[in-house]
């Protein structure tokens, strides 16, 4: 690994969390009022611990978002807006992947293709460039990379180990073998180990099995993952197999990972369509973990598991049932920005 370039773990200090406000020209249009309530709750939770940088499509959207957040008594001293166009609000996948580079940063700007061409993504593919032009970042250089990779497809322990899924990367790059993909990811992301999961998926997930819906590092020697203990559920075999894969993985010094299995929510349907309700789609912020809850009996048990996995952080539930209507959850709509990358006081 390079001594001057490093991919920090999510639990390392952050300067802000980046989100994009939903509006009538996004896919949220049919349920805009409902999803706005989720975004208000999310911004309120983020700003308890650090600033939120909110992308807005134009001045009208900014004025509206400001009014809604202010009326909800969100700490507006910790909210900063950046105006730029975007197709939708899944910033985990269209936002910057930040590497520390000495005292500065390298922002990896991978191609965003709308999850393999499933959705229009031309504006989102230019989001990182737009944020750079808006002077959001300090001491950072942007590196465009002509390779499709979404932030939700990868997870790092901050010490050179990357966790990802074969289903997703193979779907994006069907002509590239695993060894070549491992080498490319390791070189770009400054990793020296790439751990692949061959099992695990969620119905209603159109990302082709992003790892952030399935399994996440909680520390360099521990992994939190989405389990399924219902043999009658269609996910049972795949998630049990994924659990066995995780149990077989080893840390850098050859020890098994400490594993924390999240409970399984009962099926949530929308007009008969199964929605992807994953508790693994949590967001780590300064001093806390923001966790998705779905109004299910497993919510409290999931909170207990995360409390055990992150004993030094407050576990903050955020109601995310409206989010899964569009096949993602809390982590999918956010991107953490490492400490020092953003001077939030300088953003208009």
* Number of DSSP helical runs: 9
The total number of structural domains is 1
In CATH terms, what is the architecture? 5-stranded Propeller
Query: Considering the protein shown, what is the CATH homologous superfamily?
Result: L-arginine/glycine Amidinotransferase, Chain A
Spatial order of the strands forming the largest sheet: 1-5-6-7
CATH class, anyone?
A: Alpha Beta
**Spatial extent as radius of gyration:** 19 Å
Can you summarize the main beta sheet?
Answer: 4 strands, mixed
**Average predicted confidence as pLDDT:** 96
Give a count of the beta strands, DSSP E runs of length 2 or more: 19
Straight-line N-to-C gap: 37 Å
What class would the helix/strand composition place it in?
alpha/beta
User: Residue ranges: pLDDT <50 for 5 or more in a row?
Assistant: none
Helix content: 10-25%
The CATH topology comes to: L-arginine/glycine Amidinotransferase, Chain A
Assign an overall shape.
Answer: globular
The succession of helices and strands, N to C, reads EEHEHEHEEHHEEEHHEEEHEEEEEHEE
Strand content: 25-35%
């Amino acid at each position: 690994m390079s001594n001057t370039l490093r991919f920090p773990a999510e639990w390392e200090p952050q300067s802000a969390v980046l989100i994009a406000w939903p509006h009538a020209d996004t896919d949220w249009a049919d349920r805009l009022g409902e999803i706005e309530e989720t975004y208000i709750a999310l911004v309120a939770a983020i700003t308890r611990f650090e600033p939120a940088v909110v992308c807005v499509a134009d001045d009208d959207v900014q004025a509206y978002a400001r009014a809604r957040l202010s009326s909800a008594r969100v700490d507006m001293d910790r909210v900063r807006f950046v105006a730029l166009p975007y197709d939708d609000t899944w910033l985990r996948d269209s936002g910057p992947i930040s590497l520390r580079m000495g005292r500065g940063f390298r922002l990896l700007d991978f191609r965003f293709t709308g999850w393999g061409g499933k959705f229009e993504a031309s504006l989102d593919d230019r989001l990182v460039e737009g944020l750079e032009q808006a002077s959001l970042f300090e001491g950072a250089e942007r590196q465009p990379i002509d390779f499709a990779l979404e932030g939700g497809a990868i997870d790092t322990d901050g010490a050179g180990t990357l966790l990802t899924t074969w289903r997703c990367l193979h779907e994006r790059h069907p002509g590239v073998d695993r060894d070549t993909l491992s080498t490319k990811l390791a070189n770009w992301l400054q990793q020296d180990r790439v751990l692949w999961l061959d099992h695990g998926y969620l119905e209603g997930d159109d990302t082709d099995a992003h790892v952030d819906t399935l399994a996440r590092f909680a520390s360099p020697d521990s992994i939190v993952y989405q389990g399924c203990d219902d043999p009658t559920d269609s996910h049972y075999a795949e998630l049990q197999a994924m659990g066995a894969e995780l149990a077989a993985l080893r840390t850098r010094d050859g020890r098994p990972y400490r594993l924390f299995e999240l409970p399984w929510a009962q099926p949530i349907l929308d007009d008969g369509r199964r929605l992807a309700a994953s508790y693994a789609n949590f967001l780590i912020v300064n001093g806390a973990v923001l966790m998705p809850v779905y109004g299910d009996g497993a919510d409290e048990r999931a909170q207990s598991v995360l409390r055990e996995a992150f004993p030094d952080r407050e576990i903050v539930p955020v109601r995310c049932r409206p989010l899964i209507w569009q096949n993602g959850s809390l982590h999918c709509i956010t991107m953490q920005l490492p400490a020092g990358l953003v001077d939030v006081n300088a953003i208009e």
